[in-house]
Batch of 2 targets.
Target 1
Amino acid sequence: MSGNVQIMKKEDAIRISKEKAHLLPLVEIHMLHTVAGALLNRDFNNRHKVLHYGGTLRGRFTSQAVLHDIRFGMETEQDVHTKYLPEMVKNAVKEKAAEDEKVLQTGLKLVSQVFSSDKENKKKKDADVEVANDAKVLKTEQIIDVDRFTVDAYAETIIAMAKEVNAGAEKLQDAAKGVLKAMTTSSKDRPLSDVTALFARMSSDQTYSTVISPLMVSHAFTIDPYANDYDDYTAVDDYLLKSGIIVTDDDGCEINSGAAHMGSVDISANTYYRYCSICQTILFENLCVGKPFDAVDELIEKTYKLTAYFAKQFISSLPSAKQTRNFAKTMPDAVYIDKGISMPAISAANIFEKAVVPASGKSVCDIGVERLQEFMDKSVHGCFVDRELTGQYWMSDRYDAPKNVSAIKYKDIDVIVRP
């Protein structure tokens, strides 16, 4: 941005997020969600993921199994989780330098220099032997959250350096080093997309900085013991049946009937405990970096909107694996949401350390809700807790809200994430 517009650097974003902390409560979501006849998350052996907890085998599904679908729904071609940052930069250079063929060709050579994993190619000292191999697909070693701000910064820096090379002021390899140095220097102060601000970025490359996540999401686990069944399935070769072709074995016996393929997968029915928290101060801080100072109020509003969006998606999402034949999506049995200013997040996982079993006419979920409601009180008044909630909310079509806890609906989440 140009002119007299003042832009927030990382240290400015940190300072302002602390000043605005009273407007940005931490939001926690606790859920009980019963799923029947499903294989939500598989391991490398094609079996349901499990864990041992409280001396009992439980089913589980990973946080990433849910987060991927939420993130994917927000991503665009320019804000995306990928290894293809070099290709995105190459395309941006082509677009920005389209009217200057000489700069374009030098820019493409620089893209290859900057991102090439060929060590021998990087050791070459003669710029004249370097070629822009437009057909070669370059990738980063690490898969990362890439945003349009990083792509544009790379493209603009590469084009500027390409002009220096063409003017004879820089050699190609020195220009490539200059690009990396410039990107490293600016990395922590570059703006972030909404996707990266929310889902963060773990980076091993200094040219795009690590971004702290405002999200803490637990692996979901079953509150009752996990007991899988096996879903045996067959695939029939319909062509043989339709065409009338007779297939026989070595003894001449017809073998058309039966399955062309047989397999088996796990299937189970359980009640899961799920948890996440959204630290709105960190989300706001991420959104502020690289943005104008006079956009602070607008960015606070964006923080609320992104928090509400994520909360809604988390509540309504389940892993998407095998849903065409094992459709598992149900409404949650109970959702408890709380919020507070500058408070630590606390999971309710340990109240389910002892596995729940149905008893006295009460189902697993009935007993699970009772335990969750006990946690609601202990999370405020327990002997290990020193925090003050500014709101407690309950969502359920099956169970009434506890005393002094507000009953809300899905649409009300847009409001309750505010202070």
Target 2
Amino acid sequence: MNFWQRATNAVRSIGQRLSDPRRLLGRGGGWWGMRSAGEWVTENTAYNLSTVYACVRLISSLTAQLPWQAYYTDPVSGNRVRLLQSPVDRLLHKRPHPEVGSFTFRELMLSRALLHGNAYAEIVRNYQGDATQLCFIEPGRVSPQRDESGELGWRVSNDAGGDVWIPDADMFHLRGLGNEVEGWSVLEMARRSLGISLASEGMAESAMRNNPRLNLVFKHPKSLSDDAYRRLKDDLDERTQPSAAHKPLLLEDGVDFEALRLNPNDLQLLESRKFQAEEICRWFGLPPHKVALLDRATFSNIESQAREALTDCIMPWVLRLEQEADEKLFRRSHKAMGAYSKMNTNALLRSDAAGRAQLYKALHAVGAISPDEIAELEDLPKIGAERGGNLRVIPMNMQTLEAAMAAAKSTAKRK
């Protein structure tokens, strides 16, 4: 069974069991669903909220687009060198599975970790101990279990029957905030906020469907005849349809009306929905302006808010992925030579040409980067070593602190 068949079968089986929403998973109820504010909170219903969908999509896609490669530190020069001879580099940068690219795999893992607190993938190794494949497993099938010696492992349930125990060293585990073993499910922790948001969506839908403009009481000095009552009722039923909302209503035989409803501003329905959108952003740690809530965003602070999205929201997930890969994907010989993985967060500046130019100019001015290295980062033709493209230069009027101190001491002695 290939990668997508396993993932599809898992989702299909979940959808079948969700036909009875009263069935809970048992491990906190985070996978099947919980009831809050009169609404069932599940992964499917949560994705119906545009803010949840936007938060998960943005965080997972922004993190997945970062180049992820394997490196080691050269013991002679001290420079960072690409570890191209390791299959881990291809696994991280290209294809962690024969049927799934690196972007899709990371996006899939992050989408599960963001909602359920955990995402899992079994590590397949070659005879040398290098990781060659990562096979995604739905988090609802995985639970922690220690063996007789106390070693942590993961019990994976199979649709065909029977469980499989995978040692922790062979399970790529991406987790969010939680305890020492597992991450906490955001669906479970935020069930009240999500339930209120779903209830607000239902209220708005009901208001539009039932046309609140006809929330009226009709008065008559006596009693209506059967024919007049029937005509009034049929006319009112017709006006409850949105397509007939603006047609005039004909009152006959001395019938009067009085409006009882409050308008949407008094009910604060829109304000409540906006507050719930901000509340959901807080659960995911994403600045509201990233999901088009621009009430507090201005031209003067939008750049700093974009930096906050990277440092406060994206970077924690980057570090979790890097540390899990460093610990579990490299074989011992590569670990001994200092192998590690690195995501290049500068890739988020690809759309900011002015920002990249300013960064390269500053790095080149202090000799931290050469023209050929800049060209490589920008996918441009290199100048070449024979024409000085690999040279790092600094301004002639600059000197080291040691040289400045020596000159000052020499001047003091002459005095």
